[in-house]
Amino acid sequence: MRKRILIFGSALITLSSLCAIPLTTLIFQESERLADKVAAWNKECGNKAGDQTCMTRRYDLSGDLGKFVAMVNDELGFSREAFGRRKIMELEIRTALHAIRCLGVPESDPQCSEESAAIERDKAVARSDYQEMREDFDAKHWISVHVPTPPAKASPSKPAK
């Protein structure tokens, strides 16, 4: 199992470098895809946790979430970037682990709902921090380069016969 995760993570890293897609981008795409799958499972199976088909899908989804956590851990291991990026990746892991822990648990469960609310608050803070960081970076490092607009080409006229 661990070997599969390492192969999966290595393949994603290699693929991302070959396709010039940063691993972080793949992580965000996978996070969104998994969030959709969790929402679909909750909608279809949330009240039928004992149903055999739902249980099988739950185990598969939990496995996908576990692979996702391993992929994010790989990114954290390779990442030498700023603290903000690490914080975002750790929030992705926290979100995935919360989804695993609360998959099949009623929404009324206080522990799951409190953690869900806390994650949403932390995501809002991360978004705000990221926005401030980008604005600060852009204000200090953006170089405005004027690119002249080329003149419109005159359409060649057809010679009269």
Structure write-up:
By secondary structure, the protein is mostly helical. The chain has one domain (2-132). 74% of the residues lie in helices and 0% in strands. The protein contains five helices and no strands. Helix 1 packs across helix 3 (52-78), helix 2 packs antiparallel against helix 3 and helix 3 runs antiparallel to helix 4 (83-102). The longest helix has 32 residues, at 110-141. The radius of gyration is 23 Å and the shape is globular. The chain starts with a helix and ends in a 20-residue tail after the last helix. 10% of the residues are buried. Mean pLDDT is 76; it is low at 141-147.
State the gist of this model:
With 161 residues, the protein is mainly α.
| Helix/strand order | HHHHH
Q: Structural class of the helices, strands and pairings?
A: mainly alpha
Give the domain tally.
Answer: 1
Proportion of β residues? under 5%
Average predicted local confidence, pLDDT: 76
Overall geometric form: globular
Amount of helix: over 70%
Number of helices: 5
What's the main sheet like? none
Oligomer: single chain
Based on CA atoms alone, the radius of gyration comes out at 23 Å
Number of beta strands:
0
Distance between the termini: 79 Å
Low-pLDDT runs of 5+ residues are 141-147
